[in-house]
Amino acid sequence: MMIFKAVKLILSTGFLMLFLACQGPKNAASNKNNPLPIGQIVLQTPSNIWAIFQDSKGNYWFGSNGGGLYYYDRDVLVQITTKDGLIDQTIRGIQEGHLGNIFIETPKGVSKFDGKSFETLNPIIASEDQWKLMANDLWFNCNGNANDVYRYDGNKLYQLRLPRKDLETTLGINAVHQRYSPYTVFGIDKDISGNIWFGTVIAGAFRYDGTSFLWVGEKELSRLKDGREPGVRSMLEDKNGYLWLSNFKSKYKIEPEGATPYEKLPAIDPANDLLKDRIPYFNSGLRDKDGNIWMTT
């Protein structure tokens, strides 16, 4: 998941087009050199790329906003669409399972590609006791489709609900009158200890440790006074153990043994030039091998 975010951040669409133009794709005049048993060789990707992923074999996958999926093996570029079995042409995420299968996340659900063909994963509405945290699990939010979050255990796709909180008392939000679920998941990340974090549109952030949930319900993670809803889209743990939850205002120290579950501390001084003329939130980020954290505003 973090590898996907890293590549997504670093490669802009402009660089992507230049990258493909300089290195290929070759043999684009016909489809006889297609490295996959599906799809059509094309000359370039569209400009609306939303997801970029490099698999364990070094191949690149590009997900577009309505134009399908693109595969690049440093020789040819292949476009894959619903005609090839893909569930939807609007791509929101790409992951690789531990067995090498590629999983394509869309607003209509998840497609699994085994190297030959696609399979649509049909979710099972799960009970609370089906919340688990295993090393090889894959997690999806499907762009807020149908429910909060999905867990794939290598066999089944479970549709799960985050714990419901008293948002009206805590955050001043009446969930009944929302045009969408406040618990719609924007971001999914793992911290250094392997706990998984879920960032929502206005219900704050949740941490699941395999046994129980910790809820960070703060106004800065919800609807702001001016009506904006930045959402919790990225959750990063820095080298000092502080959690950054999609904003530069605060960082959080989790205190599992303390009187309170977490401590909120100031992060970056609002007068810092970094925040000049910008809202103090970041959309996505990553932690590098040295423990530094990188964000895109």
Description:
This protein is mainly beta and 297 residues long. It contains 3 helices and 23 strands. The protein has helices at 2-10, 13-23, 167-171; strands at 40-42, 49-54, 60-64, 69-72, 77-80, 93-96, 102-106, 109-113, 118-121, 123-125, 138-140, 149-152, 157-160, 185-190, 196-200, 205-208, 213-216, 235-237, 243-245, 250-254, 262-266, 284-287, 293-296. The protein has a 5-stranded antiparallel sheet with strand order 1-5-4-3-2. A 4-stranded antiparallel sheet has the order 6-7-8-9, with no helix packed on it. The longest helix is centred in the first third of the chain and has 11 residues, at 13-23. The radius of gyration is 20 Å and the shape is globular. It starts with a helix and ends with a strand. The model is unreliable at 1-13 (pLDDT under 50).
Low-confidence stretches: 1-13
Report the end-to-end length measured between terminal Cα atoms.
Answer: 19 Å
Secondary-structure element series: HHEEEEEEEEEEEEEHEEEEEEEEEE
Helix content: under 10%
Number of β-strand runs: 23
Beta-strand percentage?
25-35%
Strand order in the sheet with the most strands: 1-5-4-3-2
How many helices?
Answer: 3
Q: How does the major sheet shape up?
A: 5 strands, antiparallel
Rg over CA atoms, rounded to whole Å, is 20 Å
Shape: globular
Oligomeric state of the chains in view: single chain
Which structural traits does this protein have?
297 residues; mainly beta; 5-stranded antiparallel beta sheet; 4-stranded antiparallel beta sheet; 33% strand; disordered N terminus
